[in-house]
Amino acid sequence: MLELDPLWDELFPVEQARIVQLLVERVDVAVDSIAIRLRTEGLACLAAELNQRLDLRSAA
């Protein structure tokens, strides 16, 4: 996930939205709190995609 931080600003908004949709299942907002439910399978998918990109960069 550390590899995502430097890439985030380089992504198009549609790519950023896709990543958020992969990672966030639900957000509940109350007057005094916020609860964010993450998709664990989305984390695994994103990690695999990032590893694949790093492998392609290393091969180039």
Description:
- The protein is α+β, with helices and mostly antiparallel strands and 60 residues long.
- The chain has one domain.
- The protein has helices at 4-8, 13-23, 40-59; strands at 24-29, 34-38.
- Strands 1-2 form a two-stranded antiparallel sheet.
- The protein is elongated.
- The two termini are 22 Å apart.
Mean model confidence by pLDDT: 83
User: What is the helix/strand order?
Assistant: HHEEH
Number of helices: 3
Helix content: 55-70%
Rg, Cα atoms, Å:
14 Å
| Dominant shape | elongated
Beta-strand percentage range: 15-25%
- Side-by-side strand order of the widest sheet: 1-2
User: What's the main sheet like?
Assistant: 2 strands, antiparallel
Domain count, please report it: 1
The number of strands is 2
Class of secondary structure makeup: alpha+beta
Low-pLDDT windows of residues: none
Terminal residue distance: 22 Å
Main attributes of the structure:
alpha+beta, 3 helices, 18% strand, 60 residues, 60% helix, elongated
Structure at a glance:
This protein is α+β, with helices and mostly antiparallel strands and 60 residues long. The chain has helices at 4-8, 13-23, 40-59; strands at residues 24-29, 34-38.
